[in-house]
Design goal:
Elements lengths: L2 H6 L10 H14 L1 H18 L1 H17 L9 H22 L8 E2 L3 H9 L4 E5 L8 H5 L7 E5 L1 H11 L8 E5 L5 H12 L3 E5 L10 E6 L2 E6 L1 H9 L3 E9 L2 E10 L10 H23 L24
């Protein structure tokens, strides 16, 4: 990976670059509550929007692609819509705080397909859950609270996980959620994850960010152009021989919705090429179509503020004012 590519890799960007601003927001919520939090949120997000050129351009590029792919949405991918995109991301900080401090009540969350997880639990079967950067993965706390027995193990990037846990004053998760901090899969971690699946626990990975280390990616079409997706979720699911589900959590019409869908009963990855490559492309492509569907439903809820595609599909974002 070249120096230029490295500088634009998501892991090299500070998704929450104004660490002092987030500390301030967390403190304000804890001391003064929700109304004060929202009052302070706007200037913090405004500063991030104005100074974060790469993130701002990535936001406008995504919104432009989404508008072209779904013209019925009538999206005007200019500065104002991008700013609203940033504000939506800022609002998720409040959701994170509510979830991790136990202030999010289960009755605030609609989860129509939860019997699918409960059935797996009854059978003492674990599963892989592939999520993405739509809405707020921390709402999985509400999923875990359906029953005390549900155990979610979220595989996360070490640096960002430690940073956010430190902000909230937490350790490595809650009684029902564990953050497993990994940058690459090794035999020791694979054994640990297999034990969790065998114990009827659930693993959660995101399918819309490329690996921090190494080049294990696969091309799939997303919003009209090929982009890189990680191979990791599909390789791990094949290794563990477990069912796979997709899960996305985001607010709609003032309520939180958990969207759970069965993806596969399990599969074995071929060892030989080109069959292996074709299967990876098929799995990533199916996931990308599901991702598109949720982006269409809530356009301002996809939060990958880095160059997701190799080149912009629109005019220079600076011209969209």
């Amino acid at each position: 990976m070249s120096a230029a590519q490295t500088s634009r890799h998501w892991a090299s960007l500070e998704e929450t670059s104004l660490i002092w601003g987030i500390r301030l927001l967390v403190w304000i919520y804890r001391v003064f509550g929700r109304v004060a939090f929202r009052l302070v949120l706007r200037p913090v997000v405004s500063y991030y929007f104005l100074t974060g050129k790469i993130a701002r351009e990535a936001s406008m590029d995504y919104l432009c692609r989404l508008g072209k792919h779904y013209p019925e949405l009538h999206l005007n991918a200019g500065w104002w819509l991008s700013y609203r995109h940033f504000l939506s991301f800022g609002e998720t900080l409040l959701d994170k705080i509510l979830a991790w401090t136990g202030c999010l009540e289960p009755n605030q969350v609609d989860f129509p397909n939860r019997p699918q997880l409960l059935e797996l639990m009854a059978q003492k079967r674990g599963a892989m859950i592939v999520s993405g950067h739509i809405g707020n993965l921390e709402l999985c706390q509400a999923v875990a609270n359906i029953r005390g027995q549900i155990r979610l193990n979220i595989l996360v990037h070490t640096r960002h996980a430690e940073k956010f846990n430190r902000l909230l004053g937490r350790g490595d998760g809650s009684a029902t959620i564990k953050l497993i901090q990994v940058t690459e899969l090794n035999p020791a971690i694979a054994i640990e994850l297999q034990e969790k699946i065998d114990n009827g626990e659930f693993l959660v990975m995101v399918g819309d960010r490329i690996p921090v280390q190494g080049g294990r990616t696969v091309k799939a079409e997303f919003l009209g152009q090929e982009a890189d997706f990680p191979q990791g979720p599909w390789l791990l699911a094949s290794l563990l021989r477990c069912p796979v589900y997709t899960l996305f959590c985001y607010p709609t019409a003032g309520r939180y919705h958990v969207h759970l869908e069965a993806f596969s009963d399990g599969f074995r990855m071929p060892r030989a090429e080109p069959e292996r490559g074709r299967m990876l492309q098929d799995l990533a492509g199916r996931y990308a179509k599901i991702l598109e569907k949720h982006c269409r439903t809530e356009p301002l809820q996809w939060f990958n503020f880095y160059p997701f595609w190799q080149q912009s599909a629109c005019r220079n974002p600076e011209d969209h004012a």
